[in-house]
Every structure is written in C-alpha cells, then in structure tokens.
Amino acid sequence: MSAPLLEASGLDLAFGAVRALDGVAIDIHPGEVVAIVGESGSGKSSLLRVLAGQMRPDAGTVLYRDPAGHAHPVHGMGEAALRRLMRTDWGFVHQNARDGLRMGVSTGGNVGERLMAIGARNYGGIRDEATEWLKRVEIDPSRIDHLPRTFSGGMQQRLQIARTLVTRPRLVFMDEPTGGLDVSVQARLLDLIRALVADLGIAVLLVTHDIAAARLLAHRILVMRRGQVVEHGLTDRVLDDPQHPYTQLLVASVLAA
Ligand SMILES: Nc1ncnc2c1ncn2[C@@H]1O[C@H](COP(=O)(O)OP(=O)(O)OP(=O)(O)O)[C@@H](O)[C@H]1O
User: Fold this and answer.
1) Structural domain harbouring 237
2) Which of 12, 55, 230, 241 has an alpha carbon 20 to 30 Å from 47's alpha carbon atom?
3) Substitution candidate for ligand 1 out of 13, 40, 46, 207 with most atoms within 8 A of CB
4) Domains: count for the chain
C-alpha cells in the first residue's frame, strides 16, 4: 500500500476540563474513505478541525505527504501555506452549505472561482467546466447564473460538493455533509458523493454520526468516545463484528431504530 496522505499521532486537545481529544492516532491513504463516528460530543469535529489545520492540538503531530512524497507537519506550515493547500490539494465540505459557498456569487461563479484559484484564466473554458460540474451534481445548468440562496438545502449541498471537487483535490474533509437534510435528500446525496469519490479516486475523511452513511461510503471506520478512538478497522468488520462494548451499543441502537 502507498504511504499515507495524512498521518496523525498522539493528538491531545482540552477545552478546560473537557478532553476533546485524548491520544488520538489516525491515518488515511490516497483514494481511501475513512469515517469518524461516535455520539455527539465525542470529539469528531475537533479531530477533523485539528487534522485540517484549523485548530492546534495541545500535543501530537499531523503530517501531510505532498504529491512528491515529502511529509510536512500541518501545524508548522503557516497560515498562507495552509490556505494554499485548502485551495489546491485539499477541500472541506461543511455541514451547512452556507459555510462553504459564497452566497452572493452566482452558481457558476462558485464553481469557477475554485478553478481560477488554481490558475484557470480562460472564461469560456471555466464556464464550460462549471456547466459540466453542475450536470454532474444534478443541478440544471440553466441555473448557472442564479444565486445559491434561491436553491433548496439539498441543491446548495450539491453545489458545495461541485465547488470543492472541481479542482480534483487529493483529500477532502467532510463534516456531517448530509446533516440537517430530509432523509430522502440524504440518500440521494450519499449516492452522489459515493459515485464522485470513487470516480475521482479522492481520499475522504468523513465525520458522521450516521452509521448507515459510514457503511455506504467508508472503507474504514474509527469509533470515538470521549475523545478517544475506542475501535477502528475495516467498515464491514467494525459494523458486523464490533469488538468494543460502545461500538456494539452504537450498532445495536441503529438496528433497533
Ligand atoms: N470551542 C469549544 N469550546 C469549549 N468546548 C468545546 C469547544 N469545541 C468543542 N468543545 C467540547 O469538546 C467536546 C468534543 O466536541 P466535538 O464538537 O469535537 O464533538 P462531536 O463528536 O463533533 O460532537 P457533535 O456531533 O455534536 O458535533 C465536547 O464536550 C464539546 O462540548
């Protein structure tokens, strides 16, 4: 197997007396989808933010391996380099599409802007690619000049995904990408994410409390509880044969629902 894209170990993070992260280790390889699951408050979002360089841990390291194979400490690279990474090799899909879109910019502009950030300059080419991506995420291209605020929640989320994936990042962080949407909209969005991620071969770190979403999308699962990883392994193994009592409880509660 190739070297990990992202490799973290010994991560600690405290908010006062709350240990949000307690000795967490995680890695993700190119093209792999890893889900971080656990109940509310277990530390999932904190972990994602630390891994993406948005928050500094109290202890531990996060290493990112660039396309040339050089490993860089995420928390030592500086804000400008991190911002550049987030525009190029990385992407972030927020639970609330409004956090990942520019609501005052047209639909086509939202997608095109990311292409311009990596150097695209030909207006016609950018518009053609934006049109192509709108089709890919099942948004009618006749909406290309409309503002995203005229869209439903599901459409906004699909637009955020187009905006993030158009530059073909190597690693995408997703924080509850289907949270807050209707169940039928969630199912369609999960299918879309699964198809796009497989097609593009993107690595995804997915935070979710939805075990069904993790089963559908992830190759591997990490189960968090009170800031610790209590179990990790291949998705089928973890969900069909959970070893830790907490994972057993989590899986049983879904089966009972
Ligand atoms: N900025 C903050 N200030 C104080 N406490 C925080 C902060 N962010 C997170 N916490 C606490 O750290 C713990 C982990 O929170 P975190 O949001 O990472 O969990 P989570 O598993 O993502 O939960 P949820 O699914 O509800 O988002 C919780 O006890 C939370 O209250």
Assistant:
1) 6-97+169-256
2) 241
3) 46
4) 1
